[in-house]
Design a protein that fits this description.
Blueprint (H helix, E strand, L loop, with lengths): L21 H16 L4 E6 L3 H11 L3 E2 L12 H13 L7 E5 L2 H8 L9
Parallel strand pairs: 1-2, 1-3
Helix pairs in contact: 1-2, 3-4
Length: 122
């Protein structure tokens, strides 16, 4: 059975969250290797505060900044729209010093893009 996130747990407490599997950790490392092999410049790396997202970013890029806007909120109907606006505002600016990397969950990405079909997220 897949581990489920416990509602109300603190971001930094991995025990109450779904965590990366060995395959997930390897996939994260491979993402970082692909960026480096292709010479893709990486600037800011922002992530949801969930441990699996932070771990994904660290394993791939070696650094991460938690950003609340990338965190999903399933309890407040106004929060997703507010966070989507924040993400769009940041992503709408040309990054300096490398590409902006966002590590998040399926739901916030769907809200921002309007997409109904997503295959992979943390």
């Amino acid at each position: 059975m897949q581990q489920r996130d416990q509602v109300g747990r603190r971001w930094g407490n991995a025990r109450g969250q779904r965590n990366l599997t060995d395959d997930g950790r390897e996939d994260s490392r491979l993402i970082g290797e692909a960026f480096r092999a292709r010479g893709v410049p990486v600037g800011r790396v922002l992530s949801s505060g969930y441990c699996r997202c932070l771990d994904t970013a660290r394993l791939a890029f070696g650094r991460v900044e938690p950003w609340l806007a990338l965190q999903q909120s399933l309890t407040d109907t106004e929060v997703p729209a507010q966070r989507a606006a924040e993400i769009r505002a940041l992503a709408g600016n040309l990054p300096t010093g490398g590409n902006l990397i966002l590590v998040s969950h399926q739901y916030p990405i769907r809200v921002v893009t309007g997409s109904r079909s997503m295959r992979a997220s943390c």
